[in-house]
Amino acid sequence: MTGPAAPIRVLVCEDHEIVRAGYVAIFGAQPDLEVVGAAADGAAAVAAAERLRPDVVVMDIQLPLLDGIEATRRLAGSAATGSTRVLVVTTFNVDEYVYRALRAGASGFLLKDSPPAELVAGIRTVAHGESLLAPAVTRTLIGRFGDRLRPPATRAEDALASLTNREREVLTLIAHGLSNAEIAAELVISTETVKTYVSHLLAKLQLRDRVQAVVLAYRTGLVDIDG
């Protein structure tokens, strides 16, 4: 008989003290979350993440000393924090900041005015490798910044050539915003099998998570921006 799952370890990075305290209180009240630290600037967040190895960093974008985008880039590129996922929580909607955050390695984003339950669910979602980007949001991102996201045709072909037909199907459904359970129902296979396909395609494409898989599916033309 196995014991209860280990709690999701969370680091909060927010420069406004009241907001930061609110996050700590909300997240700390959840039985499956453990707030392991809090930081008021990006540099402190990177140092704390390297020391504490959280599962998820809840990251603001506009921060002193080191902004959230550069902090995210450093966390994503560090061997010490390579498995840490970053959830960007921002006052900005789909704009240049969010585009840059995703390019830096963020695993998703929510708006600061999201209800507490949505923020908590977002942490759980990111911790389990799921995407937070709804299809409409993704289309807006890719439509607005598509020229900078889209690789040369040969690179696009190379990126997808290694996938099996089933893996391409799974990637397409991920890009349409389906969860693992929904993909399993669509393809009439088990959820565990879907998880295996997702793991394999991420490894083949050298992607961190489902958010990057969604962006790749759009920028390679596997899923049409307007479709």
Q: State the helical fraction.
A: 40-55%
The sequence of SSEs as H and E is EHEHEHEHEHHHHHHH
CATH topology of the largest domain: Rossmann fold
Intertermini distance: 47 Å
Q: Look at the structure and name the CATH superfamily of the largest domain.
A: Response regulator
Instruction: Tell me about the largest β-sheet.
Output: 5 strands, parallel
Mean pLDDT: 81
- Total strands: the figure is 5
Provide the β-strand percentage band.
5-15%
Instruction: Specify the number of helices.
Output: 11
Strand order, main sheet: write it out. Answer: 2-1-3-4-5
Instruction: State the secondary-structure class.
Output: alpha/beta
Q: Which stretches are low in confidence, meaning pLDDT under 50 for 5 or more residues running?
A: none
Rg of Cα set: 17 Å
Please name the CATH architecture of the largest domain: 3-Layer(aba) Sandwich
CATH class bucket of the largest domain:
Alpha Beta
Number of domains: 2
Shape: globular
Modified residues (4-aspartylphosphate): 60
Keywords: DNA-binding, Phosphoprotein, Transcription, Transcription regulation
Domain Response regulatory: 9-127
Organism: Actinocatenispora comari
